[in-house]
Amino acid sequence: MGSRAFGEIGRRPQAGSDAALHLRFLDARGATAQLAEGLSDADATVQSMRDASPAKWHLAHTTWYFEAFVLAAHDEKYRPFDERFAYLFNSYYETLGARHPRPQRGMLTRPELARVLRYRSHVEEAVLSLLGRLHELAPPAAQAVRNLVELGVQHEQQHQELLLTDLLHLFSLNPLAPVYREDPAGVHHCPDGEPMRFVAFEGGRVPIGHGGENFAYDCEGPAHEVLLQPFAIGRRPVSNGEWLDFIDDGGYRDPLLWLSDGWDRVREERWEAPLYWRRGSEGWKTMTLHGERDLDLHAPVSHVSYYEADAFARWAGKRLPTEFEWETAARASLHDDVAPAGDDDARVEQAPVLDGHFADAGCFVPTATRSPSTLQQMFGDVWEWTSSSFAPYPGFRAAPGAAGEYNGKFMCGQYVLRGGSCATPRGHVRATYRNFFPPPARWQFSGVRLAEDRP
Fold first, then answer.
1. Among 237, 263, 273, 436, who pairs with 300 as Cys (CB 3.0-4.6 Å)?
2. pTM, whole model, 2 decimals?
3. What is the Cα–Cα distance from 59 to 70, expressed in whole angstroms?
4. Which element (helix H / strand E) includes 34?
5. What does residue 120 show for φ and ψ, rounded to 5 degrees?
6. Mean pLDDT over each residue of the chain, to the nearest integer
7. For residues 93 and 402, is the Cβ–Cβ distance under 8 A?
């Protein structure tokens, strides 16, 4: 079931209405199906590493969510497509039963891709039928369905990004360097950038967290205040060219730059450059979803771990920003930068899911055309590591039941990233969004923005 364009449906339904939710469900499901178009059954089945999942599993797991959380609990008429799928496609919800081991997801040659797509259609039809019958339910039950479907849409959009990053990792291991999609923007290189400059902030008491009415994950709140010391933050992310200077200066060979666990990773896994960089006879190249390309020295560096980001910052005589510094700077930049305003922006309902450009990131705009105090590329190019552990905000409480396993159980051993990447659905790009990964993770579109203390 594909996504329908605005012109095919007439006027966009009012934000927050049942009609808008119906359309958001269709859009999200259609976008995921489009991302899978052109994949062979083999492409969709292989699992390239423990942290990644096969495309087929993403397609089925996002469907299982609606079956388990929405239909099983609120639709007496629903009959499962295949009761065995609950074991195969549950991810980490302990309260919902046993699960197939994560490292063995790539062993699931059956069900084949075609059957998974039929499973998606079966569940979609049932959800659409239930949404059409909300008026028959008691008001509390109807609202519970709305909330769970909205969470399911947001969850599916998260898996759209994971599907892309997992495919990139898979294709990077193939000597043929497969092209996932041709780049609609074409092959281009960023113009020469400017030297790194920093924008100062006074600090003080600042608002943090989501306090609006639009959707946000539970870990984005409660809204509260934080006391910040004066700081400055890089006007743009660190570039590939700057990272190459780090490599040439022996950055991956100097233990004094690295946290102990990071240095162990460098030696054990023989890190010498960001994950997808390849040194050839004609210089550095990098693997992208659009195939292998020459390294663009002026584009933001991507696919680096927290350990690498921290080591680079130390080499540069700077540090990583805290997530609170990052959010404060991002809020200030919203008046100038081209990005969703977040909490109170109705455009979230209308944002495209993905624009199809998944190579590196955008280009820095010289100060001749932008104010020197304007922060650039805060949103939608690369996720930016912060120095903050993924921890609960004051007053945070996980939701009761299985839904409470969504974020709270992961608040240990993870670091926060901010800003969104070129593979992030646009409705997830906001100042308060908290992504999180363990410090060795490299296969996401993760980059670096530097910060420094100010007197």
1. 237
2. 0.91
3. 17
4. helix 18-36
5. -60, -45
6. 89
7. yes
